[in-house]
Amino acid sequence: MTTMYLSTTIVIKRFRPSDEQLFCDFFDDPEVIRYLPANSKKDYKTLFHKTFEDYQKGFMGRWGVYDTANGDFIGNCVLRILAEDESAMEIGYSIGKKYWGMGLGSEIVSALVKYTFSNTQHGDLTALTHPDNIASQKVLEKAGFVRNGNIERHGNALYLFRLERNNI
């Protein structure tokens, strides 16, 4: 399956190899990456290529988010095993500045929740945010996630949000 989600607003689908430059250039905006771990251009290229390895392993991975109306690249999202607790799944998303404040974070999170609980038996779904990323915290809370402590990753203290399968 190349398309994970489709609405009148966005389409979430697998990246194509030809999307590498689009993906890497997305992270050039300092405001977009303000709450993300510091990575180099080379790191983003490596991350992009790992995406195709993930596709071969099954339903998890990183997808591109595109504007349904004009095909513009909006951002990306990910579903993976939570590195700190292999019994839980982790979701994440990044949206280009042009698309902030349009409710797309909520739509992406909702799509990821539905996709995860339809394709896995994992009980919990998690998401991490930088403590200062209030907008993403509100998106997660709106989707039913509850803050459940902190996790340290890449030297950064992050808020851990959790959604239990039986709470949706």
How would you describe this structure to a colleague?
With 168 residues, the chain is an alpha+beta fold. It is built from four helices and eight strands; from the N terminus they run ββααβββαβαββ. A hairpin with a 3-residue loop joins β1 and β2. The radius of gyration is 15 Å and the shape is globular.
> Might you state the CATH topology name of the domain at 3-119?
Aminopeptidase
What gyration radius follows from the Cα positions, in whole Å? 15 Å
Share of helix among residues? Answer: 25-40%
- List the total number of helices: 4
Can you count the beta strands? 8
Low-confidence stretches: none
User: From the 3D coordinates, which CATH architecture of the domain at 3-119 would you assign?
Assistant: 3-Layer(aba) Sandwich
Q: Structural class of the secondary structure composition?
A: alpha+beta
Shape: globular
Average of per-residue pLDDT values: 92
How much of the sequence lies in strands comes to 25-35%
Going by CATH, the homologous superfamily of the domain at 3-119 would be Gcn5-related N-acetyltransferase (GNAT)
Question: How are the strands ordered across the major sheet?
Answer: 1-2-3-4-5-6-8-7
Most strands sheet: 8 strands, mixed
CATH class of the domain at 3-119: Alpha Beta
Distance between the termini: 25 Å
Q: What is the element string, with H for helices and E for strands?
A: EEHHEEEHEHEE
